[in-house]
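Hey, I was hoping to borrow your eyes for a little while. There's a protein on my desk that I can't quite get my head around. The fold is given in discrete form, as structure tokens running alongside the sequence. I'd be grateful if you could look everything over and explain what you see. Here's the protein in full, and shout if anything looks odd to you:
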Amino acid sequence: MRASSRAARILSAAALLAAIGGCELVDSHQPPPRPLPPAPTTPALPQSRIRWISTHEALAELRANDDVFLLCVADKEQYDRAHIPGSVLIPVRGLHYCIDNNTAYPEINYGRMPRKDQPIIVYCWWKSCKCPKIPTYSQLARKIMIDKGYRDVAFVNGGMPGWLDDGLPAEGPLLHLWPVERWK
């Protein structure tokens, strides 16, 4: 009797634990419960195309696609030296504020702003970073643009100095001084 009483207590305790834990005792003669429907899926975000390209790749993209937005993130003084024709100037110091509502330099930009679904090419005046701990303007712009949700952004390796070294089209009053001026 003791053994059956002990077994009954164990069975009762197991049933009590199952009831407290939200489990149900399953009758082996009932069909298994139907599976839950699949959870609704959310559309995947477009893949980010944040990349570095050469000056010649940038020129090829500009020639192949009229929708490419060309953005210079250099200072105004650097932009005035020389710039890529058709580029919009938003210095990196104001990029966070002006990228979505461009009021910077209306005589240059005419209020042009990039769309988040538009391919963008970014360049600055740094040829290369001289100190690995100090980022270039393009590297700073990269972080800002990713944070702001831009997904198709290319940065020009070598910046404007590389563009000029490669003899690519440029505008500016100091182009004739380029080989000498770049070392000052």
